[in-house]
Amino acid sequence: MNTPFDPEKPKRPGLFARLRSSFLTGLVVVAPVGLTIWLIWTVVGWFDGFVLQVVPNAYQPDRLLQTWLGLDETIQINIRGIGVVFFLVFTIIVGWMAKGLLGRSLIRFAEGLVERTPVVRSIYSGIKQISETIFAQSERSFEKACLIEYPRRGIWAIGFISTTAKGEIAKSTGHSGEELLSIFVPTTPNPTSGFLLFIPANDVIELDMSVEDSAKLVISAGLVYPNGKDPSVPPEEKDDA
After folding, report:
1. Angle at alpha carbon of residue 58, lines to 56 and 59, rounded to 5°
2. What does the alpha-carbon distance between residue 112 and residue 195 come to, in Å, rounded to a whole number?
3. Are 80 and 45 in contact (CB under 8 A)?
4. Count of alpha carbons within 13 angstroms of residue 200, beta-carbon side
5. 150 near 157, Cβ under 8 Å?
6. Per residue in 63-118, pLDDT tens?
7. By the 8 A CB rule, do 186 and 158 touch?
8. Distance between terminal CA atoms of the chain?
């Protein structure tokens, strides 16, 4: 005979609960893979549609295959990715030519024409600065992840140390005797936007976690920790233990 004080046996989850749990588990596994494949497939298709528009019809990949295989022209052959190959080959050839004397002369002549065009000049200079920052200076990257009190004391935010402030910035802030750091504070969930802050080095706490792990923490809105089981122990010390 059961009494009110007897512990209740845990109820076994029903069929619907088990199916829902299995579905959510499968979604966690399938969603990243599916989204990655879909994104790559979409980007490749976008490149194909953009690049193949400037290729003459006689040299289109499907036309060449139809000629080589002796197929009817009504049979459509979609070779996804050939536009990316054309773009890579074309970019390599342009880069190789730009390193030579003739290529540099042509580039200077073309840039001189662009500089004399009012609207195009502004657009071209902005895109060129962004391209040089991303590609030509790829060896520059964030040095360390850090914590700073932002936007006020008592509230902490993750930032990335980029460089040490120099020149007019360091002189105008009155911290000429103290090192001033350039800190990029990313936003969640899009870390490509954020704020550039200049903060004294004494007010910056460097983190042991890598820049990649800190970026994951920002993107996931605090859901993914590199050392979530014991946040007081850095990942390196935890692995050695």
Report:
1. 70
2. 34
3. yes
4. 8
5. yes
6. 777 777 766 666 666 677 777 787 888 888 888 887 777 778 888 888 888 888 88
7. yes
8. 51
82-98 vs 101-115: helix crossing angle, rounded to 10: 100
Return the structure tokens found at 107.
Answer: 């580039």
User: Tokens at residue 209, please?
Assistant: 């976690």
Going by their DSSP bridges, the two strands 156-164 and 205-206 should be labelled as unpaired
pLDDT digits (tens, 9 = 90+) for 37-62: 888 888 888 877 787 777 777 777 77
Domain-wise residue ranges, the chain? 144-240
What digits encode the pLDDT tens for the residues 179-204? 889 999 999 888 878 999 999 999 99
Strand partners, 146: 159, 206
Let me know how many helices (H) and strands (E) the chain has, helices first. Answer: 8, 5
| DSSP single-letter state for residue 164 | E
For residue range 129-155, list pLDDT tens digits in order: 767 665 655 455 677 999 999 999 999
Contact between 183 and 158 (Cβ < 8 Å): no
- Would the pLDDT of 236 be above 60? no
Residue with the two structure tokens 């014991």: 230
Q: Which residues pair with 183 in a beta bridge?
A: 161, 197
Q: Selecting from 1.20.1380, 2.30.30, 2.60.40, 1.20.120, what CATH number does the domain 144-240 have?
A: 2.30.30
